[in-house]
Amino acid sequence: MLDNSEGYVTEDGRKIGGVVMEMKNITLRFGGVVAIKDISFDIREGEIRAIIGPNGAGKSSMLNVISGFYVPQEGEVWFHGSKRPPMRPFEVAQQGIARTFQNIALFEGMSVLDNVMTGRLSFMKTNILQQAWWKGKAEAEETENREAVERIIDFLEIQHIRKTPVSRLPYGLKKRVELARALAAEPKLLLLDEPMAGMNVEEKEDMSRFILDVNDEFGTTIALIEHDMGVVMDLSDRVVVMDYGKKIGDGTPDEVRNNQEVIDAYLGVSHD
Amino acid sequence: MFYREAGDFKTSYIADSQTFPIKFDRYRYYVVLAVAFGIIPFIINDYWANALLLPFLIYAIAAIGLNILVGYCGQVSLGTGGFMAVGAYACYKLMTAFPDVSMFIHVILAGGITAFVGVLFGLPSLRIKGFYLAVATLAAQFFLVWLFNRVPWFYNYSASGQINAPERDVFGIIITGPNAPAWATYLFCLIFLTVCAILARNLTRGTTGRTWMAIRDMDIAAEIIGVNPLKAKLTAFAVSSFFVGIAGALFFAVYLGAVEVGEVFGIQKSFLVLFMVIIGGLGSIFGSFAGAAFLVLLPVVLKVVGVDVLGWPTDIVAHLNLVIVGALIIMFLILEPHGLAQLWRVAKEKLRLWPFPH
Lengths: 272, 358
Prior knowledge:
Oligomer: heterodimer
Number of helices of chain A: 10
Strand content of chain A: 15-25%
Strand content of chain B: under 5%
Largest sheet of chain B: 2 strands, antiparallel
Number of helices of chain B: 15
Structural class of chain B: mainly alpha
Distance between the termini of chain B: 14 Å
Strand order of the largest sheet of chain B: 1-4
Radius of gyration of chain A: 19 Å
Largest interface: A-B, 42 and 30 residues
Largest sheet of chain A: 6 strands, mixed
Distance between the termini of chain A: 33 Å
CATH topology of the domain at 8-96 and 187-267 in chain A: Rossmann fold
Order of helices and strands of chain A: EEEEEHEEHEHHHHEHEHEEHH
Order of helices and strands of chain B: HHHHHHEEEHHHHEHHHHH
CATH architecture of the domain at 8-96 and 187-267 in chain A: 3-Layer(aba) Sandwich
Helix content of chain A: 25-40%
Structural class of chain A: alpha/beta
Number of strands of chain B: 4
């Protein structure tokens, strides 16, 4: 069904654009352990792309490769049509790739507002002297970015906790604040590492709604890892399936669901 | 009862992010400023200046500086004494080399030179964290003191190895040396403290402060959302050392007048300022003031109560001081790691509701 043409139209009528990010033959090793073995896939503009697989399949490692935290031994990462040289994670972030973490990685000592403001870092142009003086440029910049942050806070419905220190928040809200921080960067590509881990059904539904809304309203390209198959199949446009570091399936949720290798990986099959 | 936020609405983001968002706080701040600048200079005498006010003002600057590094950026430093020595010696060299230049410029330049040295010794922080970084800064402490002791150029080849502040003035008013009037030295230090505190507050509430706190709270996550750890840590070292250097320059030139480096800027000084930050409150500008005030006041109060009122021997009181400070450090670390500033915050939250807590 999918070819290499410039995009496609989903069943619900959303237009998916050309390739934003392409992983070419990525291999990642930790000493003797091969975490990712010769995997290639692409992410198209405006789509929700899921990476699934059993525990230890290498999904999180894959996300870490995309966000620059791990440098693969072999293979190339192409972003917006050019090959990405090896770079530090903060440089990747400045290119427009934001992410959330499997174990919440918020700044516990700061308020929700400060956490989300930190996400706006790439829009902050004033130097340290201007900030020390505050009046003038730094204040204007702060106000401008505060407005953008407040829009995101409204969008994710966390107005009531904006001044609360993050350490006092319950788990579900922390996940939402983390999403807000990633969104504040206005990313071209948003990586979500198990956004629904440890949530109850209601919180999962909320989070799914937010993910769909983000994709819908801002047109953000999203790549996510998730274990809840029902959620993945409902949310995503295309799915990559990994097992033991290898890619065993790639396609629409329906194609993946009927792929024999995928069924074997999830249900288990005797290898003989 | 004393403390009301109701009706104090913010209609702009600028008003919401100001330093004292609550009206009551803001007015109290103006009152404190008015008393400090408008009343104290007229009633000050030498005893008050030398026993309490000057050390408080100068230690508060040093504590703000160290708080930026330890409290905001999470980089433990035991080199404060050494960096204060850099400020003092830089100020001394500048004062003797350019006698006609204003003391303001000497002190600021001394801060700048210390900032540069601070960045140099901050470089290891890019590789090592926590305990190990503390040891690395400890090396800076001992190295700097050794350097100022052993290289005669720093103390202008004086026979005693000491540095003595020559008489210098600002706009014709003598600031350093034995003939400086108490009110002038007080005002000079107060101006530096006020400006330093405002600058520190502006930095910590803005972008730079957020990158520091991000590094402190979770450095890996900070880097992944776009914080350049090199820049964040080195700016923290630079800004921190700048303030500490100013404090060192004032401590030597305005407060003591003569300095023997090992005695004045030894490891004890590093610990004293660190204790101020811990007792006052990590990550709080107000805490730096509170900690400095507390540790400057404590020995004076103990002496007045112990020696003058109760008639105890002086050495017992001096030792009691050490015991109390040690016990307080342990208590604060266990019970309230955010120090006096947090106690103050809790008290304010309670006052907001008092006398109707439900």
